[in-house]
Amino acid sequence: MSYEQRAAQCGGEALYGLDKELAEKAAAKYDPALEAACRGWIQEVVGVAFEEGSTLQAELKSGVVLCQLVNAVKPGACRKPSTMAMPFKQMENISNYLAACDALSVPKHDQFQTVALFEGKDMMAVLTNIVALGRAAQRVPGYKGPVFGAKLADANVREF
User: Would the CA dihedral through 119, 28, 111, 113 be positive or negative?
Assistant: First the structure.
């Protein structure tokens, strides 16, 4: 198989060696059902309709929808997103979203690096973060939107 054929098959750049193995490992862990659940929850909370046939990565890459999502959970949690198409502005939107997640007590281990979403490197980490935000949203005072993810446990303090 030629380099051009492998590149076309991989969606851009052909991978070899360790890069190829890591990409295959990440692809094996990816859960399309979880993506569909996250997509549905985001659309319901934000009130947007994603394009038919588009990937979740393409819909979230600009960070605008993510900022709208976290602001729907807790108004004012995230700065108003920039709608400019410049990459640094889109990455700034994603960073603002992650800062808002931090403020809503989404655990650090459930967050992702900005490039994981922007470049589509680790979409499973993005899906894990969205589920964690759904769990954290259930504890936000005044949030009346749809429930997503398992309910976080309440502290059960015992004194002996």
Answer: negative
Distances (CA, A) of 127 to 5, 6, 8, 15, 29: 30, 28, 26, 24, 12
- Neighbouring CB atoms inside 10 A of 19's CB total 11
Q: How far apart are CA 105 and CA 114, in angstroms?
A: 18
Determine contact, residues 59/38, Cβ cutoff 8 Å: no
End-to-end alpha carbon distance in the chain: 70
pLDDT digits (tens, 9 = 90+) for 115-151: 999 988 889 999 999 999 999 999 999 889 898 988 8
